[in-house]
DNA sequence: GCCAATACCGAATTTTATTCGCTTAAAGCA
DNA sequence: TGCTTTAAGCGAATAAAATTCGGTATTGGC
């Protein structure tokens, strides 16, 4: 394969590894009717070319005391590069902040916050988030139930 | 270890595997100054006890044509169990829906939608999401930039 | 002091990953 | 058509990793 185009085998490999990256090449080769060497070569290339960014362990957040997920929408006072950069640089330092996106629309950022409970969220909000400069408003929404949460893109 | 409590070694293993699950037991044993057999035993237990839910490959979404991420906030007409269940069951069938959370607050669900571009989002919205019954409003916000996006919980 | 339980380890074994040389299929071209 | 080049694919050999197992050391209870 010269470059960048994915064929059916590549796509099937990516589908499998998105679901379970602990599959062995032998198992994959059996499912896709290819040799172990071929699968090995394919996976190696998919990593080298950056399709597979990394392989990670997904933890059960309830077992490590992160039962509460909040989405917090943040609006800043102004939108100078300096204000935006400062906010980003500071907010991502907080352990509770799993994700930070700058957004289009009526607010500037959306944060995904993981804490143990509402008390911990409150503490994060008062002692960390709200201390950052140039914040106009923060609106928080809490996850009642997780219907779907997937890291695997359909291919 | 009798049950469920994590000691320092467990926590260090989880930290490492959250970042890079392709680390070998040998590499981990070197970092943590334990034997390979001990690391093997620990990791096995962490999986069995459900701390490690699964091991997955994280793909570069830009390389697989999922450049646009949207958060869509959905408000339903009513909140009967039936309406809620139907919405959940149907919306998670759409390929574009990576996450679906029922939320507290002024709307009912927040969806994370991954599409190739705005046109694809529009098509998803018109032909899929908006066809579901009992939707009052949908408000969509688009990701301009991803400052932080992490699957690893600090421990 | 003795016993039981547990964490830990080294070494042996099994399984997997990785390498390499060969074969086959396809594409370009005279 | 027949020749050449290129790349995908493969099996077998090798290297590395996972897994198993028996034994030691430590700790806490009695």
UniProtKB/TrEMBL annotation, chains A, B:
GO cellular component, one term: cytosol
Domain HTH asnC-type, residue spans: 6-67
GO molecular function: sequence-specific DNA binding
One example of a Gene Ontology biological process annotation: response to amino acid
Listed Gene3D superfamilies: 3.30.70.920, Winged helix-like DNA-binding domain superfamily/Winged helix DNA-binding domain (1.10.10.10)
PROSITE patterns assigned: HTH_ASNC_2
Keywords linked to the UniProt accession: DNA-binding, Transcription, Transcription regulation
InterPro entries documented for this protein: ArsR-like_HTH, AsnC-type_HTH_dom, Dimeric_a/b-barrel, Tscrpt_reg_AsnC-like, Tscrpt_reg_AsnC/Lrp_C, WH-like_DNA-bd_sf, WH_DNA-bd_sf
PANTHER family attached to this UniProt entry: LEUCINE-RESPONSIVE REGULATORY PROTEIN (PTHR30154), TRANSCRIPTIONAL REGULATOR AZLB (PTHR30154:SF34)
Protein name from the UniProt record: HTH asnC-type domain-containing protein
Originating organism: Mucilaginibacter polytrichastri
């Amino acid at each position: 394969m010269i470059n960048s185009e994915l064929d059916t085998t590549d796509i099937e490999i990516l589908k499998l590894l998105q679901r379970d990256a602990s599959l062995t090449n032998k198992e994959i080769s059996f499912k896709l009717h290819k040799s172990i060497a071929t699968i090995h070569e394919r996976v190696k290339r998919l990593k080298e070319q950056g399709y597979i960014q990394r392989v990670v362990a997904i933890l059960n957040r309830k077992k490590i005391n992160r039962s509460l997920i909040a989405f917090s929408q943040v609006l800043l006072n102004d939108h100078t590069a300096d204000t935006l950069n400062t906010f980003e640089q500071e907010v991502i330092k907080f352990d509770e902040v799993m994700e930070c996106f700058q957004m289009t629309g009526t607010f500037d950022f959306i944060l995904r916050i993981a804490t143990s409970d509402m008390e911990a969220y409150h503490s994060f909000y008062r002692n960390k988030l709200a201390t950052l400069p140039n914040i106009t408003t923060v609106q928080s929404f809490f996850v009642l139930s997780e219907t779907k949460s997937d890291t695997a893109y359909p291919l």
